[in-house]
Prior knowledge:
Strand content: 15-25%
Number of strands: 11
Radius of gyration: 24 Å
Order of helices and strands: EHEHEHEHHHHEHEEHHEHEHEEHH
Distance between the termini: 65 Å
Strand order of the largest sheet: 6-7-5-8-9-11-10
Amino acid sequence: MIDRPAAGDGCVEGAVLVQLDFGEKDFAERLEEFRLLATSAGATPLDAVYGKRGSPDPATFAGKGKVQEIKHAAALHEAGLVLFNHDLSPGQQRNLERELAVRVVDRSSLILDIFAQRARSHEGKLQVELAQLQHLATRLVRGWTHLERQKGGIGLRGPGETQLETDRRLLGKRVALLKERLKLLARQRQVRRRARNRREVLAVSLVGYTNAGKSTLFNALTKAGAYAADQLFATLDTTSRRLFVAGAGQIVLSDTVGFIRDLPHSLVAAFQATLEETAQADLLLHVVDSASPDREQQMAAVAAVLDEIGAGEVPQIVVWNKIDATHAAPGVERDECDKLARIRVSAKSGAGLDLLREALAEVARDRAGTLNPSAHADAA
């Protein structure tokens, strides 16, 4: 049971959360993360239904007994929404809504909804719309089954195509238009990146699990005032700022969208242009919430997304953030080759940020020496 919030917490939808255990080790952490996703989307979690299964039920995902338990919980709390921490097929979603008589939203749709709420820039809004349309394309049949008729009945005799076919055609045109616009923006970004490379400026991208503290760290280093909040996906739009580092000069630091386990593929594809900034960086600062008991799984999820967007081979330093919550001391850890591996900091208190700046200066000097060895030798 999840405690019901006090009245007057705002106009939010009451929801029953559903998560089934298929043998994952981090069940409790996944459920807590799902609760945060629900509240980030504007829902009020009223209850949670969970249980163990060997595999999903083909028709309703949860099975008849569990569906009745969900139905009872929704009726008890007068919830108008049921959220599944799993991806549902269009058929499963349709069957569940018919059985439960309330709206059913799966994990991918929930994340897409949060992205739609948070997108601020023109490019961010285009990317979210594209992801939503690509997700919708697989589910159109759900919304138009009552119109899937060529003939039969007054008002249903159309000009040779069903409403479903018309809708698919219009949707396809819109998807093509969005992709073309995003390609143009990607080309513009590529021009800026080439200009930056000619100036031999070190490009650093902050990456990490959502809510790991990337934007707080970005603000602490650059004084940029980027939006930062204790919520999932507070940042969607990539923000870049110049940062002067003593002993190395100017670098470009970029704050990027946070990653999450089981990130919808349509979302990764739609944000490909923005995520190219990460793949093209000279260095990744992988920000980790060191206070999270789920940090190892979160790091693995980030690594998986980095591989998916072609950034798996970009040099990386782990930034062990939030040491103020774990009472760890600021510090620098190196690997067996004496290369920078991990830096312990608190973006909130500022502890260890001097060590991070020194690390960035070291990387910038090493890069300058690689690009221009003769000048580096003269400087030495």
